[in-house]
């Protein structure tokens, strides 16, 4: 593990501060940037002010040989207790534009830092359908595109038409959505950061859209621990029938008798078994122990290997983030 005081990191921080218009901080606790409220410090936290800042940040990471990860709201990540010994590029407050490219055609241009619930409400109020059921998806547009987030029969792959990317090394590119495979909870983007996209929405009555939002938000309130520290769904739903039935990850975990299962400050939600909540001062290690137990018991009971939807960042479980 690289020391946070190493010469290459110091040089990179100087390069970030001289090249970027956005914010650059060192040794920043990440718990306050995740919906789990869990996570140790990032060696460097960069908040780009523009897509050009994102490009410059990635170029510097490559030049200095630094690991990096992109972060939105931190709604689909579990950050290690030891933190992340690299550069966290947080796409948020500076990249939140939303505008209609063509009001007649329903083409919307959206920044990667815009909250998904905000777009759901704005588009519904303007009479456009396609993302209103994503009202309960807590992440940003960039994270939603990257992981093809979805809910209640809608997902990003259905509406995205173009994606603005910054490639590893700093090159900017706009690609058509048809250039990506768009799997379940994975758009197939690799070694790049989403900085914006264009979406094709469809005309619909405003009152119907608002009622759709109310219905699905009420479901989210009743059926999930949406107001507790958590990451959303922890596991992906199985892609095959179990004993002849289509069953969700939550149904399998519930059937295995794991609702309420607790390790330290982490607990399988009593409302929805595919949520693991921080019930008070949980560590990432607590959550990981619950995850491991859930996977082992579901495997033993149903012969199903549950795949993670949450992204692990830092420590021994580093990876891409939401």
Tell me what you see in this structure.
- The chain has 322 residues and is α+β, with helices and mostly antiparallel strands.
- It has three domains: 7-90, 2-Layer Sandwich (Uridine Diphospho-n-acetylenolpyruvylglucosamine Reductase, domain 2), CATH 3.30.43.10; 98-221, Uridine Diphospho-n-acetylenolpyruvylglucosamine Reductase, domain 3; 237-306, Alpha-Beta Complex (Uridine Diphospho-n-acetylenolpyruvylglucosamine Reductase, domain 1).
- 27% of the residues lie in helices and 25% in strands.
- The protein has helices at 7-19, 51-64, 116-125, 141-147, 206-223, 249-255, 284-302, and strands at 23-29, 41-47, 68-71, 77-79, 84-90, 98-102, 107-111, 128-129, 150-151, 154-155, 160-167, 172-176, 192-200, 202-203, 262-263, 266-268, 276-278, 311-313.
- The strands form six sheets. Strands 6-7-13-11-12 form a five-stranded antiparallel beta sheet. A four-stranded mixed beta sheet has the order 1-2-5-3, with helices on one face. A three-stranded antiparallel beta sheet has the order 15-16-17.
- α3 packs antiparallel against α5 (206-223).
- The longest helix is centred in the C-terminal third of the chain and has 19 residues, at 284-302.
- The chain is globular and about 55 Å long.
- The relative contact order is 0.14.
């Amino acid at each position: 593990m690289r020391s946070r005081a190493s010469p290459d990191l110091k040089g990179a921080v100087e390069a970030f501060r001289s090249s970027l218009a956005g914010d650059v901080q060192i040794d920043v606790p990440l718990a306050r940037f995740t919906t789990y409220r869990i996570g140790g410090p990032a060696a460097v936290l960069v908040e780009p002010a523009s897509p050009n800042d994102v490009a410059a940040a990635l170029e510097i990471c490559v030049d200095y040989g630094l690991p990096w990860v992109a972060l939105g709201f931190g709604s689909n990540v579990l950050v290690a207790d030891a933190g992340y010994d690299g550069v966290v590029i947080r796409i948020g407050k500076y990249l939140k534009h939303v505008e209609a490219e063509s009001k007649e055609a329903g083409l919307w241009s959206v920044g990667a830092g815009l909250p998904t619930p905000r777009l759901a409400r704005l588009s519904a109020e303007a009479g456009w359908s396609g993302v209103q059921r994503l009202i309960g998806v807590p992440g940003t547009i960039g994270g939603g595109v990257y992981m093809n987030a979805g809910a209640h029969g809608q997902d990003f792959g259905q509406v995205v038409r173009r994606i603005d990317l910054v490639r590893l090394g700093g090159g900017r590119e706009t690609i058509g959505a048809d250039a990506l495979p768009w799997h379940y909870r994975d758009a197939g983007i690799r070694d790049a950061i989403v900085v914006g996209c264009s979406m094709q929405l469809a005309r619909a009555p405003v009152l119907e859209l608002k009622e759709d939002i109310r219905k699905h938000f009420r479901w989210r309130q009743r059926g999930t621990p949406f107001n507790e520290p958590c990451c959303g769904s922890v596991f992906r739903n199985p892609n095959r029938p179990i004993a002849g039935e289509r069953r969700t990850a939550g149904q399998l975990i519930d059937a295995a008798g794991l609702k309420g299962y607790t390790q330290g400050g982490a607990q399988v939600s009593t409302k929805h078994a595919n949520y693991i909540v921080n019930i008070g001062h949980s560590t990432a290690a607590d959550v990981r122990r619950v995850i491991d137990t859930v996977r082992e018991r579901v495997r033993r009971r149903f012969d199903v290997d549950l795949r993670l939807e949450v992204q692990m960042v830092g420590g021994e479980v580093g990876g891409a983030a939401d």
